[in-house]
Design a protein that fits this description.
The chain has 1228 residues and is an alpha+beta fold. It is built from 42 helices and 27 strands. The chain has a seven-stranded mixed sheet. A six-stranded mixed sheet has the order 20-19-18-17-16-27, covered by helices on one side. Helix 41 links the parallel strand 23 and strand 24. The chain is globular, with a radius of gyration of 32 Å. The two termini are 39 Å apart.
């Protein structure tokens, strides 16, 4: 059932959509997310303001399109491009005299103008993407099939769903715009290799196969906008869209970008070429528009595949593909030099480029590279070496792995580009030089960025395996000397190419020492426009490069302010001193930076984040100036568009109360309109709204308090049983509606209310009274004997505007669509435990620094995450089925209902089928209840890759932590020495697990990578901060992991949990499904340590992917497994019972496993700590040698055991496999 107005089913290029508030809001959402991630030079405060005010701005911006409003001028940001520099007796300077300017003209574009262009993209997305075709390789599509489908473009492709008829549907309702870079770029690199290999296999002659790389010169700058619009029209018409004149007139205005005369003059001085033409670099939609511009060109080249490019040279084209401005061709040639091949291909492409691309487009001939396929398609090629390194680092790398990879990565820092495209048979030493023509598939600057990123990550990993605390005996000064040396190597790599700002930033992260970097910053400042000296014309380009670097460093330092608070550095390093050093540089720059807006913006932002505000007399009051005024408690006159700055000031200082009071004072003259100023924060929620409410109460502003009562913070209390206001129940510790059973009963009660008293539709939890016929507490309403929740509407209470029906929902009053949406809002609020149904349960960071305003209630409403982890937390007392139910109810424009996986939820068409679906689900959940244990059991569906083999399980028996490591003063094992030793041991054990599975590959001879279905770790074996190692292990082996976590804090109490780590692989990337299995029965030592009993539910994994599946798997923690009631409850519900243990009574647990495997009539697995040993896998087979599948004898043993077990053995009707024992009495 579609709740959304049919208008939003599919967007079209018409003014009706382009100037629609909803489309504008979604275009802003995509634009906002992209700029935050990729346009570092953007005005982040402007983004914060837009996030808070988008509800009003969406209307204003949509109307401005209808009114034909002009764009704001672009702002020029000259950005450094790759250029070789050297160190000599003359100092640090460019290696050679400049023949062209190593700068690119980036554009800073206002968020409104960016949003307008993105709205154009949304309206044309389906047509343009369909014209390019599906570049993904899902459903086992090969590159040969992709070529046959005439798909050539890989860069800047939009996130789409593809229909059977080959048409793309852009997911315009989420925050993602472009597909993942890594996936598409890897496919772009692999395609020529795979199709080249096909040519080799099919060739009968002696010709060689080559991969030719070409580069378009200044691509974006040379796009002709009027021609672009005509090509967009042609694609749109070809897709079947009707031509809307008003739409295309608006597009012409939106694409009419203007630069100021000052920026045009600066571009001329810097020899940047004409910046007034082409697509602005920095425009979010530029990649999409550039693809549309070259779509016909791509097709024309594609039509030449299989043809001879030069009959005289015998050069044949076999494939072509493009990634933005990077072109790759597969050609065959017989006895032709590299230079001749380069000339023929360049000539061919240039001709088609002029005819079908654009007059202004050209090939950068100096960057053309011709490589033998055999040099690239082998394990020694650079791209394959990178892939191997990625593979090693993607797993749970131990110290030895990190050390071995470090040397390889450091060698990448010294690689230089060597282009030999000039080679021909007449070249001197042509035969000798041709030998060096290899490994040119990845540019050297790309390699250096890759190496810097990975090296910094390695340093961080190794530090976490080292006790860096003061006075530590294990602290090794050699390690930090190595890190200081690595930072110097990174600095040297940056000095050879100053455009590599990322390399310099990584050097700072590796070794943030002010003394080390002061000469670096001085060298940059002395060459910049802010040195205090006049800059000669010859040095203006160098000054522009250094200005760009300074702005980048200021922005990084703003990030470092928070980053350095969460990363542990050795005591000899003082990262704060480095930020202090950069703030001093910023203070020097600000008085001289009035002409460099982007530098001034970042300098002011750094000083604000460092809480060192300055007040400068300026003709124009920028957003940054306003923030500085607020920080010194001297705010400018109230402007609605700058309200967000008060919350930003609270983030920076951690003093939300101070700036809440200041905001109320600043808005006090607004009188009746003060409510409007406060309402945006009331809807947004969060710490600043809590501070504002506190100040309203403190200042006794009764009128505002009454008006805003709908947003008053819900206080936690103990609600009386049987009858209570819903908001009081859900905000309490006894909220039974956070269980799926309770939420379903509430939904059924709301349906009854609608039928009896429809006036209650769209009311809030504050306006609902709930009751039930029983004396149990509210947290027990999940129980099967509490059948009904009665709901009543309470009149006379201030309505909550957040629950008003959105305009995009079809219907009105009590129409089914309105009712379903409203019930969804109440259910989500109830599960979350608050009145804001758009929120989530993810924990806020305790770091005091600038975080920005990335969201608002209005934005969240059109992009809610319904995963159980987001709603409840990792204990997940609702399932993915409930997530699907919310997805079905709380739809928004651009939402695609095919994302709903559960068939029964997808089949909901009205409130009657909704009711049937709820009742059937409740029946299933009641049937899963563990009645003896008084425990709800919740199923989690897990879909895994199809396997025709048995279920592979791995038990990991590690040695740490030891029992003696736990003591009353350090129950969570946070002692630095223990933490370092524990993490290093866990990394080594995880790596050993991978190696064990790799050894198993040799026996199997089939799998391409080490894999298992389930890996089980002991109780309290993984520290909460070491989960990354477990996730890497799960990723590396494509496994589910069940691991006991070290005692951890849950809502103020220490608890014992075992966590299910479930990798969920989707087209958008791997997501994590996390389920925490609690522990109910505490041992004597746990009680002494003050560990609390907490087991809200029993999780049962329903694993699909095996021919005889699905298999149902559940787990328990050590002492809980001795509870015979739990075993009895689970006997007919599961196929595998796994136990994480830290138990010294091995013989008792051996006997328990022997008893359980027969009484539960299923496989039983115990993973115990190596200190005591005894990890075992047992099953109720008839023969003794079949029963004991695995067992580790002896204490102090590290053991990794693998077993391929037959989970269908004890339910299979025809037993032509191993003989099994007779069933115990009562087993179904």
């Amino acid at each position: 059932m579609k709740l959304i107005n049919e208008k939003y089913r599919t967007l079209k290029p018409s003014i009706q959509y382009l100037a629609d508030e909803v489309v504008i809001a979604q275009a802003w959402k995509k634009t906002h997310g992209y700029i935050r991630s990729f346009n570092w030079y953007a005005d982040t405060l402007a983004l914060d303001i837009s996030a808070l005010t988008i509800e009003d701005n969406a209307k204003v911006w949509a109307e401005a399109i209808n009114q034909g409003k002009d764009l704001n001028p672009l702002e020029l940001v000259p950005a450094a491009k790759s250029e070789a520099w050297s160190l000599s007796k003359d100092g640090w300077k460019p290696k050679e005299e400049r023949k062209k300017t190593p700068l690119r003209p980036l554009a800073h574009i206002t968020i409104r103008d960016q949003t307008w262009a993105s709205a154009v993209m949304l309206c044309l997305a389906d047509a343009v993407e369909t014209a390019q075709g599906d570049c993904s390789l899902k459903n086992n599509i090969t590159f040969a099939k992709t070529r046959a489908n005439k798909v050539y473009s890989y860069g800047n492709r939009l996130v789409c769903d593809w229909k059977i008829d080959g048409k793309g549907w852009f997911r315009w309702g989420n925050s993602e715009t472009y597909r993942k870079f890594f996936t598409d770029y890897q496919n772009f690199l692999k395609r020529p290799l795979e199709l080249g290999r096909d040519v080799v296999n099919q060739s009968a002659g002696n010709e060689e196969i080559y991969i030719v790389n070409l580069d378009l010169a200044k691509f974006y700058n040379t796009v002709n906008i009027p021609i672009l619009i005509e090509r967009l029209k042609a694609i749109s018409n070809g897709f079947g869209h009707e031509e809307d004149t008003s739409f295309w007139q608006s597009v012409e205005r939106i694409f009419k970008w203007q630069w100021s005369d000052k920026d045009i003059e600066q571009a001329e001085k810097l020899e940047l070429g004409s910046i007034t033409s082409g697509l602005p670099q920095g425009l979010v939609s530029a990649g999409f528009l550039a693809n549309a511009y070259l779509n016909n060109f791509d097709k024309i080249i594609g039509d030449s595949i299989g043809r001879t490019l030069s009959s005289s040279k015998g050069i044949v084209l076999h494939d072509y593909c493009r990634y933005v401005d990077d072109l790759r061709l597969v050609v065959s040639a017989d006895n032709q030099s590299i230079g001749e091949i380069s000339t023929v291909v360049n000539t061919f492409i240039k001709k088609l480029l002029k005819e079908h691309g654009g007059e202004e487009l050209s090939i950068n001939s100096g960057k053309t590279k011709v490589n033998l396929l055999s040099d690239l398609d082998n394990s020694g090629s650079m791209s394959n070496r990178i892939e191997q390194l990625q593979g090693e680092l993607s797993g749970p790398a131990d110290r030895d792995t990190l050390d071995s990879v470090t040397g390889v990565l450091e060698s990448f820092l010294t690689i230089e580009d060597e282009s030999l495209s000039f080679l021909n048979v007449q070249s001197p030493d042509s035969a000798l030089l041709s030998i060096a023509n290899f490994d040119h598939d990845i540019r050297s600057d790309t390699l250096k960025r890759f190496a810097a990123n990975r090296l910094e990550s390695i340093v961080r990993s190794k530090r976490r395996m080292t006790d860096n605390s003061e006075g530590s005996k294990s602290f090794n000064t050699d390690n930090e000397s190595e890190n200081e040396l690595l930072a110097k190597k990174l600095i040297m790599a940056w000095m050879k190419d100053p455009s590599l700002g990322l390399v310099l930033r990584k050097a700072i992260e590796v070794y943030p020492d002010a003394d080390l970097f002061e000469p670096v910053f001085d060298a940059i400042l002395s060459r910049s426009s802010f040195s205090g000296k006049s800059v000669e014309d010859a040095n203006k380009v160098t000054a522009a490069i250094m200005d760009y670097l300074l702005a980048d460093l200021f922005r990084c330092a703003s990030d470092f302010n928070g980053y350095f608070q969460v990363i542990d550095y050795p005591k000899n390093l003082k990262p704060s001193s480095l930020i202090e050093l950069l703030t001093r540089v910023a203070q020097k720059v600000i008085p001289l930076a009035s002409e460099s807006k982007f530098v001034l913006r970042q300098a002011l932002m750094l000083l604000a984040v460092a809480n060192k505000p300055v007040l400068i007399n300026s003709a124009t009051s920028t957003i940054q100036h306003s923030l500085h005024q607020i920080l010194v408690n001297n705010p400018p006159e109230y402007q609605p568009q700058r309200s967000a700055l008060f919350e930003v000031a609270g983030q920076i200082t951690g003093n939300f109360d101070t700036y809440a009071s200041l905001f109320i004072e600043n808005t006090s003259e607004l009188n009746a309109k003060q409510y409007d100023a406060l309402e945006v924060f009331a809807k947004r929620g969060g710490p600043f709204w809590l501070a504002l409410w506190k100040q309203l109460k403190k200042q006794k502003l009764t009128s505002l308090i009454e008006q805003l009562k709908w947003a008053s913070p819900l206080s936690s209390s103990s609600p009386t049983p049987q009858k209570q206001i819903l908001s009081k129940v859900i905000s309490s510790d006894l909220n039974g509606f956070e269980f799926e059973h309770g939420a379903i009963k509430l939904a059924l009660g709301l349906l009854t209310l609608v039928r009896e008293n429809p006036v209650g539709v769209c009311c809030s939890p504050n306006q609902l009274r709930v009751s039930y016929l029983n004396k149990d507490a509210w947290n027990k309403i999940w129980k099967h004997y509490i059948e009904d929740i009665k709901c009543e509407f309470i009149p006379g209470i201030v309505s909550d505007p957040r629950f008003k029906k959105p305009d995009w929902i079809e219907g009105s009053g009590t129409d089914d669509s309105v009712v379903l949406y409203w019930i969804g809002t109440i259910l989500r609020s109830s599960v979350l435990g608050g009145a804001d149904f758009t929120g989530n349960k993810w924990k806020e960071s305790n770091v005091i620094t600038y975080k920005g305003l990335r969201t608002s209630w209005y934005k969240r409403r059109m992009g809610m995450i319904h995963a159980p982890e987001a709603l409840i937390g990792e204990y997940a007392t609702v399932t993915n089925w409930f997530s699907d139910l919310l997805m079905r109810c709380l739809q928004w424009p651009g939402f695609e209902s095919s994302f709903v996986k559960c068939d029964d939820v997808r089949d909901i068409t009205d409130i009657d089928s909704f009711e049937v679906c709820l009742k059937q689900r409740l029946l299933l959940l009641n049937g899963l209840t563990c009645f003896s244990s008084e425990l709800p059991a919740l199923p989690t569906e897990v879909h895994r890759p199809i396997r025709d083999k048995k279920f592979r399980i791995v038990t990991v028996q590690q040695l740490l932590p030891k029992s003696t490591d736990f003591n009353p003063s350090d129950i969570e094992l946070n002692n630095p020495a223990i933490r370092a030793r524990h993490r290093e041991h866990l990394a080594a054990v995880c790596n050993l697990t991978v190696k064990t599975l790799e050894a198993k590959l040799i026996v199997d001879g089939e799998e391409k990578k080490p894999s298992a279905d389930l890996i089980v770790f002991p109780e309290v074996s993984v520290h909460i901060d070491d989960q990354d190692l477990i996730k890497r292990l799960a990723d590396k082996t494509n496994s589910i992991v069940f691991a006991g976590l070290v005692f951890t804090n849950h809502e103020g109490k220490l608890v014992n949990i075992a966590r299910w780590f479930i990798p969920d692989y989707r087209e958008s990337g791997r997501q994590w499904v996390i389920r925490d299995q609690g522990k109910q029965h505490m041992t004597k030592h746990e009680k002494e340590f003050g560990i609390s009993s907490y087991r809200p539910c029993q999780h049962i994994l329903e694993i699909h992917g095996h021919p005889e599946g699905p298999f149902k798997v559940t787990g328990a923690i050590c002492y809980d497994a001795t509870d015979i009631k739990l075993a009895a409850d689970l006997r007919d519900k599961t196929d595998l019972f796994v136990i994480s243990a830290h138990n010294q009574d091995v013989s008792t647990f051996d006997n328990m496993a022997s008893a359980l495997q027969w009484h539960m009539y299923q496989h039983v697995v115990i993973a115990n700590i190596g200190e005591f040993g005894g990890s075992t896998i047992q099953a109720p087979y008839k023969e003794q040698y079949d029963k004991l599948i695995s067992h580790v004898h002896g204490v102090g043993q590290i053991a990794i055991n693998t077993a391929d077990i037959d989970l269908a053995a004890f339910r299979r009707k025809q037993k032509s496999y191993r003989k099994v024992k007779a069933k115990p009495a009562g087993v179904n």
